[in-house]
Amino acid sequence: MANGNTAPATQQQRRHFNLVRNVATCLLALFVLVGLAVLIAWLVIRPKRFVYTLENGSVQNFNLTDNHLNATFDFVLKAYNPNSRVSLYYDYMETTVTYEAQTVAFNTIDPFFQPHRNVSRVEAKLVALNLALSPSTFKDLRIEKSSGEIEVDVHYKSRIRLKVGIWKSNHRILRIVCPSVIVHLSWYRHFDKIPCEIEP
């Protein structure tokens, strides 16, 4: 009796083992195929990192009065797409100027499309209108103003989609920061180009 019950149980275990092995084999084959597809796509597309540079920056009507700031900032961002097959949709873009971690000016930029192997220049005008400053920020800005230049950070935030052939990716957020931007209060002073960083 004991031996008679053992045989069906052994067969059931063997069938269960074969089922698990077959499922594992199918999953492994699927992972390998997906990996090969991704590798082939990468070898064909050869994606390269987008490059961003702040080409120009200026400020006009800069005025500090009673802990308040009035100013108009103008910046030109050069966006370089070195890819031969990847294009980029910028569905929206925000530009922010910060000083000592305080936002002093903000604006939005119209959506645009950047083809492959393309250089686009993105112009932004940001206005600080009677902006209230903390006493310490006001003091530091006044000191920098007396030197004829101020140092700010310029941030860009965009919702983008990649395009390869007819395929388009899902939306993702692109953040670009151009740190330690020296803006001269005198229009005739030369602006030094700033390489910008893509934040993870």
TrEMBL record:
Record keywords: Membrane, Transmembrane, Transmembrane helix
Tree of life domain: Eukaryota
GO biological process terms, semicolon-separated: defense response to other organism
GO cellular component: plasma membrane
Major place of residence: membrane
Entry-linked InterPro entries: LEA_2, NDR1-like
Positions of transmembrane segments: 22-45
Membrane topology annotation: Single-pass membrane protein
Late embryogenesis abundant protein LEA-2 subgroup domain mapped to chain residues: 77-171
Location in or out of the cell: Membrane
Keyword presence, Membrane: yes
Entries under Pfam families matching the protein: LEA_2
Listed name of the protein: Uncharacterized protein At1g08160-like
Organism ancestry: Eukaryota, Viridiplantae, Streptophyta, Embryophyta, Tracheophyta
